[in-house]
Amino acid sequence: MKPTLVITLLAAASVLAPSSHAGNTTIADRWALDGGAATVWKVEGTKLPHKDFIEQGGRRVGQKVYYEVKADRTLAVVRYVVWPSIRMYHKNPNNTNGHLLQLIGNWVEPVITSGIRPLEPMKVSEVRLDGMLTIIGRSGEIEIKRVIFPAFEKYTALERWTLTNRGDKPVPIAVANVRSAFEMDGPRGRSLIETSSDGPESATLEPGKPLSFSIQFSARPFGTAAVSVDAEAEEKGRRDFIRKLNESLILETPDPILNTAFTYAKWRVAEAMNDTRGGMMLAPGNLGYYAATWCNDNVEYAGPFFPFLGEAGGNAGSLNAYRQYIPYMKPTYERIPCSIIAEGTETWGPFDRGDAAMYAYGASRFCLALGDKAIAEELWKGIEWTLEYCKRKLTPDGVVASDKDELEGRLPSGPANLCTSSLYYGGLRSAADLGRSLGKTQQAADYDQRADVLAVAIEKYFGATVEGFQTYRYCDGNDVLRAWICAPLAMGLFDRKQGTLDALFSSKMWSPDGLASKSGDKVFWDRSTLYALRAAFQAGDTARALDFLGQYTRRRLLGELGVAEAPAPAPTPIHRLRGVA
After folding, report:
1. What does the alpha-carbon distance between residue 167 and residue 505 come to, in Å, rounded to a whole number?
2. How far apart are the two ends of the chain, measured CA to CA in Å?
3. 281: exposed, middle or buried (C-beta count within 10 Å: 0-12, 13-18, 19+)?
4. In the chain, what are the domains?
5. Beta strands 123-129 and 133-139, pairing class
6. Which has the least CB within 10 A, 59, 128, 415, 425?
7. Rounded (10°) angle between helices 497-504 and 526-538
8. Gap between the Cα atoms of 373 and 377, Å rounded
């Protein structure tokens, strides 16, 4: 058995309390830690109505569940269920968003009667997150528990209902089960979406005794046999998956909020690995971009993390991502795609976002973390190619030209941007370390020499005073602070660390939600916030990094997030099957 990897960080005591950093307002918690890796919201006495959501994933199905506890404590649930490897014609099956996606509302909830009367809507008392979404409430003397989760391997999302009689007399119960089926056109024939439940048509709830049944949301190619799904077994399988993640790569600090948030991050990235016709592929999620691989999300961000976590699906999906790009690395040194989509059958990317630099850095770090010499030798050709591509893209100023950056034109990035050049620098240093471990000493020395030259060019071209801070301009002509000025620090370039850190943590850039994309903007991206926090730790600004990490983490884990309404679905051609309600 592989030993458990435990990360121990002696955090400053100040991170244990809500931060009162100047320029930020302390926001009251809605959630509380509840032992282990659980968080709980005790509804009574809190501000209502309140809306929230959670995204969950399995190998072949995912869902985003929006839930609202209304002013009278009644519940409304809307979910989008997605099947990444079932492709749809109406969206173009080879489009990055060509997966099957279905909106499912309250109409799926079974009608439960006691005698001749329907049960009153339950009043929610508690919402719990522990790898599942569990909602608990009461309807009179009957306690109702709804546990919402995806199957791990099957094409099914589930909800288990448990009714428990909290009174002292038997209660007759009848469940009017839901059954519906729709068919949809796809590239491999019509697919079938089915909703079903298995509640008892007649039963007696004895005092203190629970009664469980499930609602299932499934999809399959039309004409294929339905697969039996045991809801209780699937719940156990999901909990076993979460338990194994809890036992691997454990973060230990004096701050239980930080520890728990780290655990939740492990769950989310590991559960989002989808099993597709193109192999395991990590989904960025948010109802888009499933069954695809991206040079930033998969290759640069998540890939180097999975060897530390040691989760088999994550390692397989990361290796698959690195392998998928190699066939596009031609001797002519044309840009590689930004993304390989639709289960590996098509590509997306009308421009160069610095993807080669992302690949060189991510693949090198993955190999260093994995420690498998055969895989490192296999991926070395991709690392070589992408570093050579970046070398050929150097401008007369010695920095790397790229059409865009990872924001894909949402903000100006000029003909050369700080992020791409910083990633190229990080790729050169990481590849040099990897090369030495593989006995490629001459190449390693060359990469280090190129990195030395590039560091000087980055300082000369990007180094600047911006809004009074001795930091970096993001691109030529840029005169406002940008979130990605953290990139040089994250890659080990510390010449301007003080001014850069002061700028990042100033009131011009930091908000309760994290780091603004640019000074004075309300738009923020978690990726740049987390990169900046990482950069602060690497630059040795530990106390300040912990303070800001603490406030960011507490807000995300326990605070109010201001969730919007569930988005309206795109028009979908659905054909209701005859004879099915």
Report:
1. 55
2. 51
3. buried
4. 38-241 (2.70.98), 248-558 (1.50.10.10)
5. antiparallel
6. 415
7. 140
8. 6
Give the integer Cα–Cα distance in Å for 120 and 140: 7
Residue 334 DSSP one-character state: P
Q: Is the peptide bond before 221 cis (omega within 30 degrees of 0)?
A: no
What letter does residue 335 receive in the DSSP assignment?
P
For the chain, state the CA radius of gyration.
26
> Do residues 267 and 23 make contact, with C-beta atoms less than 8 angstroms apart?
no
d(CA 196, CA 581): 11
Query: What is the tens place of the pLDDT at every residue in 257-304?
Result: 999 999 999 999 999 999 999 999 999 888 888 999 999 999 999 999
Residue type, 12: A
Is residue 99 classed as helix, strand or coil in its secondary structure?
strand
3-class DSSP assignment, residue 91: coil
- How distant, in Å, are the alpha carbons of 282, 305, 345, 356, 388 from that of 294? 9, 15, 14, 11, 20
Q: 510 and 480 in contact (C-beta within 8 Å)?
A: no
Provide the token pair at 557. 């884990």
Round to whole Å and give the CA distance between 157 and 196.
11
Amino acid identity for residue 498 in this structure:
Q
* Residue-wise pLDDT tens digits, 31-45: 999 988 999 999 999
H or E element that contains 144: strand 142-150
508: Cα within 13 Å, side-chain hemisphere: 16
User: Residue 531: which pLDDT band, with cuts at 50, 70 and 90?
Assistant: very high
* Global pTM value: 0.92
